[in-house]
Amino acid sequence: MTNPNMIQVNHISKHFGNHAAVQDVSFNVHQGEIFGLLGPNGAGKTTLIKMMTTLLRPDQGQILLNGFDTQTQSRLAKQQFSVTGQTAAIDQDLTATENLMIFGQLSGLTHRAARRRATELLAAFDLVASAHQTLATFSGGMRRRLDLAVSLVGKPKLLFLDEPTTGLDPRTRDQMWRVIKDMVASGSTVLLTTQYLEEAAQFADRIALIDHGKLQAIGTPAELGQRVGGKQLRLQVTAAKMLAEAQRILQAAIKQPIQVGQRSLTVALADDQLPVCAGLLDQLAAAKIGVSQFAITSPSLDEVFFKLTVGKN
């Protein structure tokens, strides 16, 4: 039976000499979700992934993958996942089709099923025209696409993506995510690290922020936004001459410090102030103030990242 938590990280620590790379970290990743693991360079993300994928042994704590202990049941744990890292693991002397078929058969597929899966992935990653070329003829972007395809060939229950889209063009990133979302819809689970915070905000169901080896926060992107100040109102007027009067109206209604831009006003909102916003547009219209933007938003993941990690240093 599939474990409802595909990954269970329980009080994991890892030291390298006197350096504490990971310090008492615990979290669970649910079956069928995309989970983002974010943090500054050197925060401990790669060390955590190496421990989850059995490449490193933790000094203390336990990691379970689909219920299997990575230390005492490593063979069974390894059967639960596939990994895509930042460097290609493909054979440079083989064609794209040959690479995919070899990895398919290593994943337990029959020759026919491996060929069918190779054909699907070549199409998904726009590599059909190069299917029978050796990798010596491939560009860097084509090699990365093939590397991503290889990691997906066996439709793994659990997929670790360690900065998989670094250096990829937007089109290739979009291709990758279309395939990943199809896999998740079929029941696979993804743990992602990425340099692109907007990518994590768009695709991750939940995010864990790690800094200096410690877990700083965990939750959905919206929940993390609440940790650093909740919602804010952004108002933009159509002409700069209207800004002062708009600021007066906004100040009287919200009674909070207002950040003033060239034609914009931004103010933090408490939950009990949200109903006040409904009447603001009427007041602005009565004062003949043109409004080109009126939006209530949560802090971006960039703001969350800097306030909970970099901004603390």
Brief summary of the model shown:
It is a peripheral membrane protein. Belongs to the ABC transporter superfamily. Drug exporter-1 (DrugE1) (TC 3.A.1.105) family. The mean pLDDT is 88.
Average pLDDT: 88
Provide the CATH architecture of the largest domain.
3-Layer(aba) Sandwich
Order of helices and strands: EEEHEEHEHHHEHEHEEHEHEEHEH
* Assembly category: single chain
The radius of gyration computed from the alpha-carbon positions, rounded to a whole number of angstroms, is: 24 Å
- Outline: globular
Q: Helical proportion?
A: 25-40%
Keywords: ATP-binding, Cell membrane, Membrane, Nucleotide-binding, Translocase, Transport
InterPro entries: AAA+_ATPase, ABC_transporter-like_ATP-bd, ABC_transporter-like_CS, ABC_transporter_ATP-binding, DrrA, P-loop_NTPase
Family: Belongs to the ABC transporter superfamily. Drug exporter-1 (DrugE1) (TC 3.A.1.105) family.
Organism: Lacticaseibacillus baoqingensis
Q: Could you describe the 3D structure shown?
A:
By secondary structure, the protein is of the alpha/beta class. The chain folds into 2 domains: about 220 residues, Rossmann fold (3-Layer(aba) Sandwich), CATH 3.40.50.300; about 70 residues, Alpha-Beta Plaits (2-Layer Sandwich), CATH 3.30.70. It contains 11 helices and 14 strands. The strands form 3 sheets. A 6-stranded mixed beta sheet has the order 6-7-8-3-9-10, with helices on both faces. Keywords: ATP-binding, Cell membrane, Membrane, Nucleotide-binding, Translocase, Transport. Pfam families: ABC_tran.
